[in-house]
Every structure is written in structure tokens, then in C-alpha cells.
Amino acid sequence: MENLLADIKKQLEDLNRTSERIESKIDDCQKQINEIKNENANLKAENEQLKSTVAQQNYRIGYLEKEIKRNNLVIQGVTEADDETNIQLKEKMETILRDMGTPITFEAEIQELHRIGIKHANKTRPIFMKMRNYETKVKVMKSTKELKGTQIYITEDFPKHVMEERKVLSKHLKKAREMGHRAFMKYNKLIVNGEEYGVEDIFEESSNEIPEQDATKKGRTISQRSPQSVVSKRTNSMGCLLKN
């Protein structure tokens, strides 16, 4: 009997030691888990900081790009002779601006004037014109209505990504005006009845209709962003931005 009790006691001691080792390993695992959690939290914080830094840098780059192009204009549709010289180009632009009612002293108000791109046969290249000051550019842009009915049109020198966004928005601009809304574009935004929309507000899908169940997955149209019960200038203007 004594031997049996001794064996049982020994087994219990072994079990206790095993239990202690297991508890020690559990504690070590818990410490490692906590360390991983802390590292993960630090990585998340660093990632958020990096996102914020990237967003700030993108904003600064966009701002600088916009400022660099602030005084620039691009003129489309001006005929180009095969042997056109810079002097002839200058004379053409002087005539166009004079006919628009905005005569300009080139030496004083124009910093740079040239065709854009490589010359190709039977293709008219656009003209790049950089003003010496922003006021002159505004004066020219206000007179572009005088070009109505001609093949010539003048636009601002937008960055590539802005031009792509404006191309998307232009279709909705046309539709909004056809529906009688007061609409115009300002840089990369569409203004409808005083409300501002960007490309992120508008679906651009190849099909004309998006099933309701798919709309949840792909995003929301402008009209889905506000409750139907809300009646406001914004919701009234949303309809013109939806696809047929």
C-alpha cells in the first residue's frame, strides 16, 4: 500500500511539473502574442502616417502642377502650314486675339508660344501659349465666346489626369444643360445648380444600367448617396447626372 501511495504521489508531482511547464509555455506564447499585437499596432500607425504623408505629397504635387500651368492656354483648330514659322504663328495668334476683342502686346504679355508635339502630315497641332500674368489669361478666357461658330477653341492647360476627369464629366455637363440645369465645369469638378460633383460621384460603366444588387458592390450613384425623402437643391440636381 505504501508503495502504491508513493507511486501515486510521484505521478502527481510529475503532473504538477508538467502543468507548470505548460503554464510557462502558455505565458511565453501570451507574451509573444502581446508583442505581435503591439508590433501590429505600431505597423498600422506607421501605415496610417505613410498614407497621410503620401496624401499630403500628392496634394502638394497637384498644387504645384496647377500653379505651373496657371498662366497657360492651349489653342485648338488653328490651321498649320507645312512651312509655318514662329513669326507666322505669332501673327496668326495676334489676329485671333484681336478678333476676339482682346488685343495683346506679345512681347509684354506672352512669355511662350509654340506648337505642341511632333509635326505630321495632314494634322494640325495645338498651340501652347503661356501668359506672363494670370490676369491676361483670364481676359482671354472671358472672350472665348467670340470664337463660337469657328473651328477654333481655347482651353486651359490642364494636367493629364484632370483632362481625363473633365472628359468623363463633360458628358454629364451636356446632359445637365439639356435638362435646364445651371451647369459648368470648374477645373476637375462639375458644378450643377451650385452643387459640386467629381468623377468619384458618377458611375462610368460600359453598360447603361447597373443592376441594383451590383450597385452595392461597385459603388453608389449620386442619387443613392442621399435619402429619397430629403428634398434639396442637391438631390434635385442629382437626376441629371445619372445614366439613361
Automatic annotation (TrEMBL):
Keywords: Coiled coil. It comes from the Eukaryota. Residues 221-238 have a biased composition (Polar residues). Residues 1-60 form a coiled coil. The keyword Coiled coil applies. Residues 208-244 are annotated as: Disordered. The keyword Coiled coil applies. This is L1 transposable element RRM domain-containing protein. It comes from Photinus pyralis.
